[in-house]
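Deliverable D2.4 — example input (structure tokens):
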């Protein structure tokens, strides 16, 4: 117990203690904390679908029909027809032959990578990939190689030297990066995958619903549905619901149903979650205006800050303002909070040293006027 106390005190003294903050209420673009209303720039509800009336209605109807819990795993009696309907809809949406639903994106990454790869295999992963990808690799027992962020040249060098020493090899990346808002060079990765006889996996957590002709993601936008073997993602971000998925071949799906422990040994997602995820896919198909507005607003916000000389990254709805110094990031976040804007500071070790930032996650709950106001506020503070 003493160790735990020392650990917590140490974290606190360094200003790195993580704590929970309970909100009283939330709706797209807004959050209510300590009795105050804030404009929320830290939510992943990019399209405001968590509050969509048709999706809420679908969930309510499913609760009435199926009750609140699934009460068993998919392989026992937890499997409902609507789980299969969601998987069929996801496969069509992602232009792959099949799809499998996971209880979260985290459990998806953990289980997919660890059940498909093992000792004697290698996984080459972008340095900035999400913790769930890293944890899946660790659990697999395969050898981890990290290539420099979005650097296909570095990946090629690593593959040239090391590919021959391993049996199966996976290349894995996020398609839109959660902390940098930039986009992976998937075409180049797909070429390397062919050249070195590997499989390619893309985590579309932040791309799904936003990019591509039908809102399917970056894999669709680049026309790479066939070359990316494993297209995973989550229903918990732009789709406003919950659960993870993998779109893949029928064989890989069958294999995972047999071998993927995070799929097998966890109760099925309840019907209301599944019903809302199905409806969200429909809405993304039927309401393309949402993603277009979001990307236009993101472009507007980025340009406004860039024109003022600020260091802005990203090519998506995720917009990091790089302030470098951790204390400065905390201070800027605090000052914006005083003005009613909630944008959280992201510091090392989540990002590299000297790369502390404020991360603005834009959603359709923010209109141009709001974005203009917060941009002016930031520019004003930065001028001091
Ligand atoms: C959020 C996220 C996940 C995990 O998805 P959940 O459904 O929230 O567990 C996986 N990968 C990336 C890149 C993410 O941003």
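Example output (designed residues):
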């Amino acid at each position: 117990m003493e160790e735990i106390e020392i650990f917590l005190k140490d974290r606190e003294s360094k200003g790195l203690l993580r704590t929970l903050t309970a909100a009283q209420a939330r709706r797209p673009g807004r959050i209510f904390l300590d009795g105050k209303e804030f404009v929320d720039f830290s939510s992943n509800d990019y399209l405001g679908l968590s509050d969509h009336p048709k999706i809420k209605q679908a969930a309510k109807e499913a609760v009435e029909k199926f009750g609140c819990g699934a009460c068993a795993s998919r392989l026992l009696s937890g499997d409902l027809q609507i789980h299969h309907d969601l998987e069929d809809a996801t496969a069509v949406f992602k232009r792959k032959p099949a799809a499998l639903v996971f209880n979260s994106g985290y459990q998806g990454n953990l289980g997919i990578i660890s059940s498909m790869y093992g000792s004697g295999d290698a996984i080459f992963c972008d340095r900035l990939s999400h913790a769930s990808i890293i944890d899946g690799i660790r659990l697999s027992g395969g050898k981890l190689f990290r290539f420099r962020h979005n650097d296909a040249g570095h990946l090629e060098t690593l593959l040239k030297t090391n590919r021959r020493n391993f049996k199966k090899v996976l290349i894995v990346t996020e398609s839109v990066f959660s902390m940098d808002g930039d986009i992976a060079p998937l075409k180049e990765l797909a070429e390397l995958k062919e050249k070195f006889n590997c499989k390619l996996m893309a985590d579309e957590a932040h791309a799904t619903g936003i990019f591509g002709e039908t809102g399917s993601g970056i894999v669709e936008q680049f026309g790479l549905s066939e070359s990316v073997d494993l297209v995973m993602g989550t229903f918990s971000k732009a789709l406003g619901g919950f659960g993870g998925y993998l779109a893949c071949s029928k064989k890989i799906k069958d294999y995972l149903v047999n071998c993927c422990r995070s799929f097998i040994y966890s109760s099925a997602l309840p019907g209301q979650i599944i019903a809302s995820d199905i409806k969200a896919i429909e809405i993304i198909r039927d309401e393309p205006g949402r993603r277009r507005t979001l990307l236009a607003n993101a472009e507007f916000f980025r340009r406004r800050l860039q024109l003022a000389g600020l260091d802005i990254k990203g090519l998506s709805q995720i917009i990091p303002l790089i302030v470098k110094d951790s204390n400065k990031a905390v201070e800027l976040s605090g000052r914006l909070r005083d003005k009613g804007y909630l944008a959280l500071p992201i510091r090392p070790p989540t990002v590299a040293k000297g790369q502390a930032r404020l991360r603005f996650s834009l959603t359709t709950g923010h209109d141009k006027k709001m974005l203009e106001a917060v941009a002016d506020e930031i520019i004003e503070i930065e001028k001091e």
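The longest helix spans residues 289-307.
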